[in-house]
Design goal:
With 143 residues, this protein is mainly beta. The protein folds into two domains: 9-57, no CATH class; 58-143, OB fold (Dihydrolipoamide Acetyltransferase, E2P) (Beta Barrel), CATH 2.40.50. The chain has helices spanning 15-22, 75-78; strands spanning 26-30, 37-38, 53-57, 60-67, 85-90, 97-100, 123-130, 136-142.
Length: 143
């Protein structure tokens, strides 16, 4: 898939997240001192003030919130509007929320789901869409 959209930054802190995504694994950080999950990635745990470890999670959650963007938008997204942007609360810890898009198929476009069918509380599971060799972006399917 060619990529004309804006890509997320990959740095040394987020690299393990993107490595997991390339393997089809959703990863989050975990505080070594407390066991609490951490997302987005950061260099130090806010609770243990040490470097967090990385763990794989189930990739399941529920739609906690959503928005349907309409133009005017960043040029890279204008042709896709309206599309959905969802906030997913992970099953392992509902305070951990990830932003993504609800799609109808693993390689589906972010505008393929009718915006009127997106509902808070819907169970979802992660899939990874290859944008580049380095970036496999989490997207979400109804489960």
């Amino acid at each position: 898939m060619s990529c004309d959209i804006l890509l997320p930054p990959v740095d040394e802190v987020s690299q393990p997240f993107w490595e997991g995504a390339r393997r089809g694994e959703l990863r989050v950080q975990q505080c070594r001192a407390t066991g609490r999950l951490i997302f987005p990635p950061r260099p130090l745990s806010p609770w243990g003030q040490s470097e967090p470890s990385w763990i794989a999670v189930s990739g399941r959650g529920t739609i906690w919130s959503f928005v349907i963007p309409h133009p005017p938008l960043l040029p890279q997204f204008s042709a896709l509007a309206p599309y959905n942007v969802i906030l997913v609360a992970l099953d392992e810890d509902p305070t951990i929320r990830m932003v993504g898009n609800l799609v109808a198929s693993e390689d589906g476009a972010i505008d393929e789901v009718d915006p009127h069918t997106v509902e808070i509380g819907t169970p979802v599971r992660v899939v990874f869409q290859r944008l580049t060799d380095e970036i496999h972006l989490p997207r979400w399917l109804r489960s």
